Amino acid sequence: QGRPLAGRRALVTGASSGIGLGVAQGLARAGAAVAVNYRSGQEAAEALVAEIRAGGGQAVALQGDVSKEEEVAALFRGTAEAFGGIDLLVANSGIQKDAPVGEMSLKDWQAVISVNLTGQFLCCREAIRAFRQGPERPGKARGAIVCMSSVHELIPWAGHVNYAASKGGVRMMMQSLAQEVARERIRVNAVAPGAIRTPINQEAWDTEEALEKLLRLIPYGRIGEPEDVARAVTWLLSDEADYITGTTLFVDGGMSLYPEFVGNG
Ligand code: NAD
């Protein structure tokens, strides 16, 4: 296997668990130096950094809340101090605070929008500013971003209006940014996972009944793993995907294909 991200320097937000952790491992395997952002999972972030270094890679753990402007600026300063600059961003941090609409507090609406949408905006803005300071790469993108979206940028989700609105926002933010900075040879894309086995949705897969119900929504017939998402992110960030910008790549085993129509014709 080649190392398509050799010499590239990446920041992955929310990398102490789940998809972010898998993505950080994947980017490191592909040769990137990886800044592992965490909010509260310091032990897990440091264990991941140790694992990457033990494998001969470069990594650093950086604490920070992506919904806070100053902390995001500090994250990018930390990445630049560790690696001398930054070329790649995976804006992955996200939360859910579910409630039927009549019971959804303004606080829970705002919490989800602040992390999932504003947090990605702050990270993308800082990344674009930093890429502009970095070297040009003749014939190649100077910087690339992947925003972690969800099938819920497309599929409405009753009982999760804050989450679905945040991901719908991520889609339009990603496309508008992609359009705005393409001329500068900065690529901005999104990955939209379906159901991936992580702590965020544990109740959807940790019993047999729950898993069976979940699998009815997945034509491909299995739950996704963080590595499935990591491979897609790695490719989108690599020069292999050089002509791709403003696109959402669904990594969902067909969840967005109206699975209730299977065998219904
Ligand atoms: P997770 O809970 O394991 O990971 C979320 C990460 O975000 C955690 O590491 C958490 O510490 C971090 N985080 C939360 N608030 C933060 C903040 N304010 N600042 C910095 N970091 C913060 O869940 P996951 O499934 O790995 O989720 C990762 C991303 O993938 C999220 O954006 C989520 O919406 C998206 N996603 C997940 C699935 C799935 O099925 N698991 C599906 C679609 C999209």
Automatic annotation (TrEMBL):
CDD domains: GlcDH_SDR_c. The keyword Oxidoreductase applies. This is SDR family oxidoreductase. It comes from Pararoseomonas baculiformis. It comes from the Bacteria. Belongs to the short-chain dehydrogenases/reductases (SDR) family. Keywords: Oxidoreductase. Pfam families: adh_short_C2 (PF13561). InterPro entries: NAD(P)-bd_dom_sf, Sc_DH/Rdtase_CS, SDR_fam. The lineage of its organism: Bacteria, Pseudomonadati, Pseudomonadota, Alphaproteobacteria, Acetobacterales.
